[in-house]
Amino acid sequence: xxxxxxxxxxxxxxxxxxxxxxxxxxxxxxxxxxxxxxxxxxxxxxxxxxxxxxxxxxxxxxxxxxxxxxxxxxxxxxxxxxxxxxxxxxxxxxxxxxxxxxxxxxxxxxxxxxxxxxxxxxxxxxxxxxxxx
Length: 133
Prior knowledge:
Elements: E1 20-23, E2 46-49, E3 53-56, E4 63-66, H1 68-91, H2 97-104, E5 110-112, E6 120-122, H3 124-130
Parallel strand pairs: 1-2
Antiparallel strand pairs: 3-4, 5-6
């Protein structure tokens, strides 16, 4: 059983989901590198850091680090929320899940990790500029 097999390129149905992968931390590696336990394959749309991601715990100043696809998914979800809010503020309508996924996974608007099976790390600033925000 291969627990780290790539996602299939053609899923039976399109749920509109953004499939997320994770990269190694940029400070720990000189080149873009897929996290060894992350999702990968040509179905993976976007990636974000999967190491050394830190957040605050509720109610105090203690930090908590987490990693892998859980960390990357939170970063991508935040980027999706910002992008969708920019579109709504600009146009008054929301993007469909497929439209949002297409925008976030466009190599013109982020760091391209497709050759590594990771998709694209969306750059919210570039996307905002393209939207005229």
